Amino acid sequence: MTSSDSPIIRAASYAVMGLGHALGLASSCQDSGEYMLHGLLSSTKGAFQIGERGEELGMKKFLGSEEARRKLWEHTEKVARVE
Fold first, then answer.
1. How is the chain split into domains, by residue range?
2. Could you give the CA distance from residue 76 to residue 49 in angstroms, rounded to a whole number?
3. Residue 56 near residue 48, CB atoms below 8 Å
4. In whole angstroms, what is the distance from residue 11 CA to residue 46 CA?
């Protein structure tokens, strides 16, 4: 939103982001990127979930079975493979 052509949208975006940071509800792009990179580099192999702070969530909030998790990972590997 901060790249919008509308000055009203840009101003509102900065205000909302500033409020989120002040209340501890949001993190900067750099902090968020560091959390995600940490989660990706320190997690287990295969399909896994990481939270907003890069922590591994395990099976918490995972609605599928082990079989569904395995199939999801195989599909992800297939579509993300660069040849």
1. 7-80
2. 14
3. yes
4. 42
